Please model this.
Amino acid sequence: MGAQLRVYKRRIKSVTATKKITKAMEMISASRIVKAQRKVAASTPYATELTRAVTAVATGSNTRHPLTTEAESPVRSAVLLITSDRGLAGGYSSNAIKAAARLTERLRAEGKEVDTFIVGRKGVAYYGFRELKVADSWTGFTDNPSYANAKAVAAPLIEAIEKDTAEGGVDELHIVFTEFVSMLTQTPVDNRLLPLSLDGSGEAEAEGAKSEILPLFDFEPSAEDVLDALLPRYVESRIYNALLQAAASEHASRRKAMKSATDNAGDLINTYTRLANAARQADITQEISEIVGGASALADATAGSDY
Model:
């Protein structure tokens, strides 16, 4: 029984060390959520107003710009998937990957080819292990993205949608990320960024970008030049906001996963403590029984020697 008690003590020590680690990770993630939420709140108004400006230019002119004009028969789409660089965040990355897979299946069912762009090591590893084609990928900044990171991600996507599909370009741009709803709820979503919807059915309307039909305007130097300047900023701002939303969701998911791990470690420590106490009591009982048995045997031997 002594050996079993030592095993329980080693397990308690090991689980206690693990609990300290998970508790520290939970506290770190909780502190980072607050910073990520502030960045999301700061970036959202800019992205929304920029969407309004782009919509106003596109709606208030007769210019047919490649970034706002629907293709008659779209044949290729680009999908940007945002995952995490690190694990220990529950189902955060896997849920985003599943949402991207559903979107890809839907686009292919519509007869479109899909070029996949990935942010985060988890997504890159998933596609690499399954030998799935990836057009481009970025890693190393998912937990704290900057606007420079968003520009780096947006550049090849803008270039792809400006090209003709015969030259490797795409007709549509979709983004899959995890939207931060609350500390307890993070939802994977897929949005179409380009072409920008002007008929009230797309994301621009969902963000309140178009509230009324705008009259025609005169633009200087031209509406096309204004769109050329605004639309890249629009894509960068939407991707930056999505990266921030994903970062906040990642920290929230990790905090939730680490809290669950800490609670489970506490339950396991209590279980092993009870088992260790039971083993110790069994050892004490056995020792008492041996002492009593030895004393009784000695008493019987002494009594026999008296005759």
Notes: Helices lie at 2-59, 92-109, 121-129, 147-162, 203-206, 223-305.
